[in-house]
Design goal:
Elements: E1 9-15, H1 22-32, H2 53-58, E2 65-71, E3 74-80, H3 88-95, E4 100-106, H4 113-124, E5 129-134, H5 143-154, E6 158-160, E7 162-165, E8 173-176, E9 181-185, E10 191-194, H6 201-216, H7 220-229, H8 234-246, E11 251-255, H9 265-275, E12 284-289, E13 292-297, E14 305-314, E15 318-327, E16 329-331, E17 334-338, E18 343-347, E19 350-354, E20 357-361, E21 363-365, E22 369-373, E23 383-385, E24 403-409, H10 415-428, E25 433-436, E26 443-447, H11 450-464, E27 468-469
Parallel strand pairs: 1-3, 1-4, 4-5, 5-11, 6-11
Antiparallel strand pairs: 2-3, 7-8, 8-9, 9-10, 12-13, 14-15, 14-23, 15-22, 16-21, 17-18, 17-23, 19-20, 19-22, 24-26, 24-27, 25-26
Helix pairs in contact: 6-8, 10-11
This protein binds guanosine-5'-diphosphate and magnesium ion.
Length: 470
């Protein structure tokens, strides 16, 4: 994949409750943009993003995965995160390196506990967001009801930019509110333009009024124009939405189904490109130099600054450090400072990630995401920088373990093997801890809950061939 200028990159974290269709949606985006030739399936274990053995077995996301693709001269880096509360640390890390979030809400389930929890994280990170109502083709899909919940429980500033035509198995099109046109889809996912259905006229007029008002809000002259003429140009609306999204006074709501050829995928790609902020939206970042807050410059011309937000241990392929470059570029075959650890790291190979596929690249440039063959002394959250960079980005606020179990190696004498294996896995997942209880001398695993423990021990057995009982 070619290198993109920061203004042509969108970094988006997919966050939500588990099962809200994030991974499938990311897969559909990769497919529609041609990054993958065939849509993988979470249920069948063929997903390009849920590809770790544990994910295939549990049929759900457990680790963050990056899916990069190109759409109309723009690069999207989709950072797909697991929805389970036990793995919330992954979403927290992902949200710390992107400029926007895509929050999915099931059309047949509405806002769930996990949706509210991640929405709070989106708020905490001050991130713009698109809300996608997914699974519109499901039997009990109800856009109106789900939208009412979104407004009440997530944000009153959530505003539909599309209205679905039909629901459940009759979901077959969208009204594009800004364009004032309808699009009907055939079974292959191909859309044709059509008149807005008569029975949706009233709903459309209402949505239009709301959208136009919100799009004009930042500019008195536009509000006046809309009041007087009842019209705004498509460019004026687009610009208005962009500003509203950036300032978090406007959260566009879209509706999709990924089943079959999909319905609403192209309009969603359009919203991602047009409405979500580019990777250069922040000209500076706040860093820490000792106790002192300092300003760090972003952009192509500034000294290299990057952050490792995830370490991924991949079956057969080795270990990778996933990073976000904010300034300058991280170059393959060069040296870089780990400012957090005060160490020099050698960067060997670099990759662009399309889920389980990776493409070798020469550099990760400002604004982009990518992976390096694991850096020796670099941990999750560490800041990397050019020589002379002496401030770090704030640490990732990983959740603190809230549950504990006692571990006993199944075989006598395996204590060291268990400890070493857990130590390696901890590199990848900072949300668990292992220590010896000073009184009982037993090994204690502290983590985020039952599912977390299950996955950790399963991986320990698979990777390091040691069984433990608890
Ligand atoms: N009918 C239907 N099912 C979907 C759609 N999107 C996802 N699913 C199913 O919903 C389940 C959860 O999807 P997944 O992408 O793993 O959700 P995640 O946990 O948010 O990543 C899987 O069984 C998917 O096949 C959709 O648009 N329509
Ligand atoms: Mg998933």
């Amino acid at each position: 994949m070619k290198s993109y200028a920061p203004e042509h990159i969108r970094n988006i974290a997919l966050v939500s409750h588990q099962g809200a269709g994030k991974t499938t949606l990311a897969e559909a985006v990769l497919f529609k943009t041609g990054a993958i030739g065939r849509m993988g399936s979470v249920d069948e274990g063929t997903s390009n993003l849920d590809y770790h053995q544990s994910e295939i077995e549990h049929k759900t996301s457990i680790f963050t995965a990056i899916g990069s693709c190109e759409y109309e001269e723009t690069k999207f880096n989709l950072v797909d995160t697991p929805g389970f509360e036990d793995f919330r640390g992954e979403a927290i890390a992902a949200l710390s390196v992107v400029e926007s979030a895509m929050v999915s809400v099931r059309a047949d389930g509405g806002v769930e506990v996990g949706t509210e929890a991640v929405w709070q994280l989106v708020e905490d990170n001050d991130l713009p967001a698109i809300i996608v109502v997914t699974k519109m083709d499901k039997e009990h899909a109800n856009f109106e009801q789900v939208y009412a919940q979104i407004r009440e429980r997530l944000s009153a500033k959530a505003i539909p930019v599309q209205l679905p035509i039909g629901e459940g198995e009759n979901f077959h099109g969208l009204v594009d509110v800004a364009l004032g046109k309808a699009f009907l889809y055939d079974a292959s996912g191909k859309a044709t333009e059509a008149e807005i259905p008569e029975e949706m006229r009233e709903a459309y007029e209402e949505a239009r009024e709301e959208l136009f008002n919100a799009a004009a809000e930042h500019d008195d002259a536009l509000v006046e124009k809309f009041l007087e003429e009842g019209e705004l140009s498509y460019e004026e609306i687009t610009r208005g939405i962009q500003i509203g999204v950036r300032d978090r006074t406007f959260f566009p709501v879209c509706a999709v189904s990924t089943t079959g050829g999909g319905v609403g995928m192209r309009p969603l790609l359009h919203c991602i490109k047009e409405y979500l902020p580019a990777s250069n939206v922040r000209e500076t970042l706040t860093g820490l130099k000792g106790e002192e807050l300092v300003e760090l410059k972003t952009g192509t011309e500034a000294p290299t600054l990057a952050r490792v937000f995830k370490i991924s241990i991949e079956k057969d392929a080795g270990e990778f450090s996933l990073m976000r470059c904010y300034a300058g570029s991280v170059e393959a075959g060069s040296e870089i400072q780990n400012v957090s650890q005060e160490k020099t790291e050698r960067v060997s190979q670099l990759f662009s990630l399309e889920g389980k596929n990776r493409e070798k690249i020469e550099r990760i440039t400002a604004g982009d995401l990518g992976a390096a063959v694991k850096l020796k002394d670099t941990h999750c959250g560490d800041t990397l920088g050019a020589r002379g960079v002496d401030a770090t980005l704030p640490k990732i606020a990983y959740p603190v373990p809230n549950s504990r179990v006692t571990l006993r190696p199944a075989k006598d004498g395996d204590d060291d093997k268990v400890a070493q294996g857990l130590h390696r896995l901890h590199e990848e997942d900072p949300t668990f801890l292992v220590h010896n209880d000073p009184e009982t001398h037993e090994m204690v695993l502290e983590g985020m809950g039952e599912m977390h423990f299950e996955i950790i021990l399963e991986r320990l057995a698979r990777r390091y061939s040691v069984e433990v009982t608890r």
